[in-house]
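Example: TMM79 protein.
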Amino acid sequence: VLCPCLIYGAYVFLPFDAPLMPTISARLVYTLRCAAFATFPIVLGMIVSGISRLCSSALEPFGELQREVELHHTYVSQSIHLFILYFFNMAVLATYLPQEVLKLIPLLTGLFAISR
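Written out as structure tokens, the predicted fold is:
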């Protein structure tokens, strides 16, 4: 219930507009640029996963993972899967949205990054 209200409030009250993008290729590049910011939680998860693997007491690097290492590994793999779904959905959405509503692409990217 809270997320649609936040998106609507940001859409109405934030003072930015999407640049003019008349072609589909320009819209896809814009979506790709926005999606680059959505990878930030994945990169942080990879760093934390690497640190937890280094700090674990496992002697074999390719052996069975401990619970806390497995937890970070699961977060990273699920985040990558969700990012792929998110990116394809945003790419399709950007091709169909009218120019006036393209402001939603960075807002939804921010929501994705915050939710991960």
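The chain has five helices and no strands.
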